[in-house]
């Protein structure tokens, strides 16, 4: 593991005992914006785990004020298991993928869009079913558009224009649904007809797909200052694993969540970009 800072002087914590100098440095430098370059086999998962424990046990930071974002459910589960054992069962923290974190945030605050907190999360098969429903309503068949191509188009359209979330918002759901149906009718091509009909089906079922989890969260944080204040104050420390793999929206999310305390720790390997 490589770092561009000096080892912190002072006694070695029991938590950092057994780490090499560069790992210990990454664990004990807790404040500010920190980037760690870590190649394969350098022990970065171990370092992240120990850094989390150092914040909780040595600095007394509540796990509910620490976000550790990993890039697979498996990695999150393994890290959570290690930390839960060391913290004697405290499971109040946010050790998860970005998408799982967003589900938790939205369960608390999606009500600002007039969505219920029990909104549906669509998996891949659910998403295909919703597209097929849109096809049926539009009189399309697989000869007109491949399901996978339609889903790719929907995801790309959403990612390029986050303002689509406004169709999920508002007090008058019936009016919003009518507007979406008008968008379907006036769409310039079959791609956009499927796109707006898909949004209509989502709105009608209070359902979010995988892309929406990040994008709707960003929409709320960017347009509701009180929610940004709440979550950026809560997340005193933000840590991101595999930073070389994050996309623009995930970067924006990490930036927003760390905008109050300015404690953002990222670790990654440019050679794997």
Features of this protein?
elongated; Rossmann fold; alpha/beta; 273 residues; 52% helix; single chain; disordered N terminus; two-stranded parallel sheet; 11 helices; 2 domains; 5-stranded parallel β-sheet
* Tally of distinct domains: 2
Termini separation (Å)? 17 Å
What percent of residues are in strands? 5-15%
CATH homology superfamily of the largest domain: P-loop containing nucleotide triphosphate hydrolases
CATH 2nd-level architecture of the largest domain: 3-Layer(aba) Sandwich
CATH class of the largest domain: Alpha Beta
Q: Report the average pLDDT across residues.
A: 89
User: Helix tally?
Assistant: 11
Share of residues in helices: 40-55%
Biggest β-sheet description: 5 strands, parallel
Low-confidence stretches: 1-12
Oligomeric status: single chain
Shape: elongated
Structure description:
With 273 residues, this protein is an alpha/beta fold. It folds into 2 domains: 21-108 and 229-272, P-loop containing nucleotide triphosphate hydrolases (Rossmann fold), CATH 3.40.50; 120-205, no CATH class. 52% of the residues lie in helices and 10% in strands. It has 11 helices and 7 strands. The protein has helices spanning 21-28, 44-58, 73-86, 98-109, 124-138, 147-160, 173-186, 190-205, 210-223, 225-234, 248-257, and strands at 33-37, 66-70, 94-97, 120-121, 207-208, 237-240, 264-268. The strands form 2 sheets. A 5-stranded parallel sheet has the order 1-7-6-2-3, with helices on both faces. Helix 3 (73-86) links the parallel strand 2 and strand 3. Helix 2 packs across helix 3 (73-86), helix 5 crosses helix 6 and helix 6 crosses helix 8. The protein is elongated and about 65 Å long.
């Amino acid at each position: 593991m490589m770092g561009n800072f000096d080892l912190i002087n002072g006694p070695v914590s029991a938590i950092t005992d057994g780490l090499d100098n560069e790992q210990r440095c990454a664990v004990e430098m807790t404040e500010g914006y920190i980037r760690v370059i870590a190649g394969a086999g350098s022990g970065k998962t171990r370092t992240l785990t120990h850094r989390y424990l150092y914040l909780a046990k040595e600095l007394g930071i509540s796990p509910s004020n620490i976000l550790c974002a990993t890039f697979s459910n498996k990695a999150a589960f393994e890290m959570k298991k290690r930390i839960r054992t060391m913290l004697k069962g405290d499971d109040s923290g946010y050790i998860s993928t970005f998408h799982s974190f967003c589900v938790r945030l939205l369960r608390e605050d999606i009500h600002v869009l007039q969505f219920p907190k029990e909104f549906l999360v669509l998996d891949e098969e659910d998403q295909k079913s919703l597209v097929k429903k849109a096809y049926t309503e539009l009189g399309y068949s697989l000869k007109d558009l491949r399901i996978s191509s339609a889903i790719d188009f929907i995801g790309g359209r959403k990612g390029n224009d986050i303002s689509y979330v406004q169709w999920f918002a508002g007090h008058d759901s019936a009016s919003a649904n009518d507007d979406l149906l008008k968008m379907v009718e006036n769409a310039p091509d079959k791609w956009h007809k499927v796109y707006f009909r898909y949004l209509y089906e989502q709105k009608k079922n209070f359902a979010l797909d995988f892309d929406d989890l990040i994008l709707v969260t960003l929409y709320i944080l960017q347009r509701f200052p009180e929610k940004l204040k709440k979550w950026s104050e809560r997340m005193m420390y933000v840590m991101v694993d595999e930073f070389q793999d994050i996309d623009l929206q995930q970067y924006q999310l990490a930036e927003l969540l760390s905008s109050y305390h300015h404690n953002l720790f990222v670790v990654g390997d440019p050679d794997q970009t």
